[in-house]
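As agreed, record passed on underneath.
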Amino acid sequence: MEASTMSALRTLFGNRLQENVPLSGYTAARIGGPADALVLIHSVDELAQSAEELWEMKVPFILLGSGSNVLVSNKGVRGVVIINRARLVKFNSKLEPPTVHAESGATPNDIAQRAERLGLAGIEWAASIPGTLGGAIYGNAGAFDGDIAGNLVSLELVHRQDGRQVWPVSKMDYEYRSSVLKREHAPVVILSAELALRHGDSKTIRARMEQISEQRHKNQPQGASMGSMFKNPAGEKAGRLIEQAGLKGKRIGNAEISSQHANFFISNGKTRSEDMKALLELAQKAVQDKFGIQLEPEIEIIGEW
C-alpha cells in the first residue's frame, strides 16, 4: 500500500488501525497472511461509515466476521480488512410472528440460543453452526432442513452507489447456498437483519437444538477448518463423491481431507494456503474425472495469490 494511503488511513481510524496483521488469527482455519491494514468495528453505524469512507478513498477492503468459509492466501490481503464485531440482538416477542433484529456480526448460533431461552422457535437449525449473521445472509447458510432464507424478513445494507437501504427478503433472490449478492459480487456491506421466529416450548426447542448439536459433533470433524468446502451437487453429497474418488484422508503438506467427513478439509497447524488450495483443486479434478461432476466451492478464496 502506498505511504500516502496508509497515512490517510491512520488519520481516518486513529489508534484503531492495525498494520501488517497476520490474518491466521482471524480465520477459522487458522490460515492467512498479513493484511496491510486491519480495523475492528463494534456497531452498524461504524461499519457503514467505514465502508463509505473507504469507498470514497478508493481503498479496497474486505469484511470478515468469524472467518469461517474463507481461505485467505498466505501472501495476505492488500488494502483494509474490517473485522465485524457489531453484535447487538433485540427480540420482539409481542409481534406475531415474533421477530429478532440482529446486527450482522452476531452469530446465528447465539441468536438460536437466546431465542430458546425466550421460548422462540424456528431457528434451531443454526445451533452450533460457525459464522456470523452477515455471512449467513450473504451465502444463504443452512443446515438440518433450515436456512437463513426461511427466517429472513428484511436486511439493512449499505451500497457503494446508493447508500443505506432496506431490502425485503425477496430481493435477495435466494438459491441453495447462494444469493444475488454472492452471485453478482455486489458492492454492498450487510449491516443488520430482521428474522421471523415463532412461539414454542423452551424444553422442546432445547431438545431439538441439543439433537442438532449432537449430530453435528458426531458427523463433522473437530479441528481447524473452513466448514463445508463444496456445495452439494443436485441429488448428491460432495463428501460422498470425494470419498468415492479415493481422497478421504489425503494430505498435501499440513492440509488434509478429513477421514471422518470428506467435505471438510482440516488445517493441521502451520498449513500453507497454497497446499489447501491445491487439495481443493485435486478434489475437484478427481470428482470431475470419476463422475463428470464439477464441484463448486462453498468457501470464498481471498487475498493475493
About this structure: The chain has three domains: 3-84, 89-205, 221-302. The domain at 221-302 is CATH 3.90.78.10 (Uridine Diphospho-n-acetylenolpyruvylglucosamine Reductase; domain 1). The chain has a mean pLDDT of 95. The longest strand covers residues 188-196.
